C-alpha cells in the first residue's frame, strides 16, 4: 500500500432540523459574536428566520453578510472580511451553497485579528498561514461538498478563477440538515447532485492521491446519490431523499478533498467563467464526453463504479460492458432530470470552443489528476463532442 494522508472536517452533524441548534452549537464553542455569510436568495426566502431567534436565547450576538454572489469575486470576499472585523466576529458560519461556504472559509482566515496575509498571497496550495477564526458550515445544496473540503474558489478577473487550497480552510463543524434544501428547485437539485456524483467519480479515478479511504467514500457517495437523485429532483419534499443526498455530497467532498478532481472540472470551469453557466450544470455538460475520453485507461475503475451507480439495473457482461453502461447512464442523467445536455442548448457559440480549450489548459492543478493525459487538442475534441 502506498503511504497517504487523509484530512477532513473535525465534526459532522447529520440531522434533519440540525440547523435549528446553530446558536447553541456556536455557544458551545465559546463564540460571543458570530457572522453568518450567505447570499441574497437565502435572505430573501427567509431561510434564516427560524435560526436567528436562537442566538438571542443563547446570548450570542449575530450579524449577517448576505451579499455573496455566484462565482464570488475577490471584492466580495474582502467586503465580508471587513464586516467580520467590524463586528469583532470570533466565529464564522457559512450558510448556503458552495459560494457562500467558500467565502466563509476565507473570512475565517483573513478576519482573524492576527492575520497578516492579503488574499492575493493565498492562491495555490498551502500558501495560507494561520491562525483563523472558528468556522461552521451549513450547506443548503447537496452538491459542492465544500463543508468538508480545504478548497475555496475565487473569481480573480473577468473570466478567470483561482483556487486556494489549505488544511486551514477545513471547517470545525459541518451541519447537514436536509430541511435547508427543501426549497431547492428541481433544476438546481439536479445540477448540484450531478456535481456531487462527478466529485465521487473523479476522486475514485484520481491519478496522484487516490487512497483506500477516498475510494471507499467515493463508492458509498455514488451509491447514495444515484439511489436518491430522482426522488430529490422529482419529489422535492422527500426529506429522507434530501438527507441522503446531503450525506452523499458530503462523502464525495471528503473523497475529492483527499483525491482531487480532474478533467471534468478543468473543462467545466471555463464554461462558468465565460458564460456564467452554474458549476453543476457545467460539469453535467462535459461529464459523459470526458468519461468516454478516459475509457481506454479508466475502464476497470468505471466498471467498478457501475455497481453502486446502477445497482440491480446493472446488466450482465464483462468489464468493458459495465464501463460502457456507466457512461451511458451518466449521459442520460441530465435530460432525465430536465437539464440541458448540449453546449448549444446553453448558448455557447461554436466559435468559442478553441478559447475554452485554451483556458482549460490553465487548470493544470486539476488536469494532472486525470487518469489520461489531456492536450489542448483533446480538450477541443471533448468540447466539440459536447456541442
Could you explain the architecture of this structure?
With 387 residues, the protein is of the alpha/beta class. The chain folds into two domains: 11-180, Rossmann fold (3-Layer(aba) Sandwich); 186-386, Dehydroquinate synthase-like, alpha domain (Up-down Bundle), CATH 1.20.1090. It is built from 14 helices and nine strands. It has helices spanning 22-28, 40-44, 53-57, 74-87, 98-110, 186-204, 212-234, 239-258, 263-275, 279-310, 319-336, 353-360, 364-367, 376-386, and strands at 11-14, 33-37, 61-65, 91-96, 124-125, 134-139, 151-155, 161-165, 173-176. The strands form two sheets. A six-stranded parallel sheet has the order 1-9-6-4-2-3. Strands 5-8-7 form a three-stranded mixed sheet. Helix 6 (186-204) packs parallel to helix 8, helix 7 packs across helix 10 (279-310) and helix 12 (353-360) crosses helix 14 (376-386). The relative contact order is 0.11. The model has no long low-confidence stretch (mean pLDDT 95).
Topology:
Elements: E1 11-14, H1 22-28, E2 33-37, H2 40-44, H3 53-57, E3 61-65, H4 74-87, E4 91-96, H5 98-110, E5 124-125, E6 134-139, E7 151-155, E8 161-165, E9 173-176, H6 186-204, H7 212-234, H8 239-258, H9 263-275, H10 279-310, H11 319-336, H12 353-360, H13 364-367, H14 376-386
Parallel strand pairs: 1-9, 2-3, 2-4, 4-6, 5-8, 6-9
Antiparallel strand pairs: 7-8
